[in-house]
Amino acid sequence: MDLNQLEMFCAVVRHGSIAAAASAVHRVPSNLTTRIKQLEEELGVALFTREKNRLRLSQSGHVFLDYAHRILELAAEARVAASGQQPAGRFALGSLESTAAVRIPALLAAYNQRFPQVALELSTGPSGLMLDGVLSGELTAAFIDGPFEQSELTGFPVFDEQMVVVAPAAHAPIRRGRDVDGDAIYVFRKNCSYRRHFERWLTVDNAVPREVRELESYHSMLACVSAGGGVAIMPRSMLDSMPGSSSVRAWPMGEEFGLLKTWLVWRTETRSMALEALCQLIKGDKSANAH
């Protein structure tokens, strides 16, 4: 087993096929096929299940992926530490959609300018999906809606988000869940922490939506709410950033539900100069803003 094999294995997982991975790592497909088979023979397990032209991670492959990511990260850190250089190498970062759109663009721009040798890869999605990515080792760290319960993770709060109920301009005042009883609601998929937050807010008042409609973006939610189709929740910072926000009315969710914190989390055993640099940059910015 060598680092090249691990990099090829991770590339195949990331790109979903031998051909796409070979193009990404500048190798011929036959070379990747041979090296992956050698790795499987050495481990004594099948890392992929092969279905025609598609590859899917096997159960053993999922287990091995976590170790492969950690080995590659440690190797990159060892090279940097030995050479006395700045952080370098791949840094897979996850984020909530709203955080990526509003909160971190300036932060990541400053990070890239300061640490150009880091290959920053940003993935976005619901908190549940981002947490799974960190726990599996696919992501080094992620911005999620906190707090979190997983003992394998550590992190710290970064942003405060004021949560609002977004309703058509003509909707009656909304001060609690019962004020939207019987309305349709717009939400993300079930592993979205904001969706669970919305559902808890409704449950406190025994409010029942007429219909639950799953959408894929805040812009879709805003368009549907603006058209009078129902209500949604989102961070006020996200709403304020979108064209068309003046066409709807935003109501605070109240003292108990109105404020959520966004955390940066990572696996407790993670050792990464790139991650440490990001943490220091965030804490430096927070300290500067406090003054």
- Approximately how much helix is present in the residues? 40-55%
Radius of gyration: 22 Å
- Taken as a percent bin, the fraction of beta residues is 15-25%
- What is the name of the CATH superfamily of the domain at 160-259? Periplasmic binding protein-like II
What average pLDDT do the residues reach? 89
Provide structural commentary.
With 291 residues, this protein is α/β, with parallel strands linked by helices. Among the domains are: 1-83, Orthogonal Bundle (Arc Repressor Mutant, subunit A); 160-259, Periplasmic binding protein-like II (D-Maltodextrin-Binding Protein, domain 2). It is 46% helix and 24% strand. It has eleven helices and eleven strands. Helix 8 links the parallel strand 7 and strand 8. Helix 1 packs across helix 2 and helix 1 packs across helix 4. The longest helix is centred in the N-terminal third of the chain and has 25 residues, at 59-83. The termini are far apart. The model has no long low-confidence stretch (mean pLDDT 89).
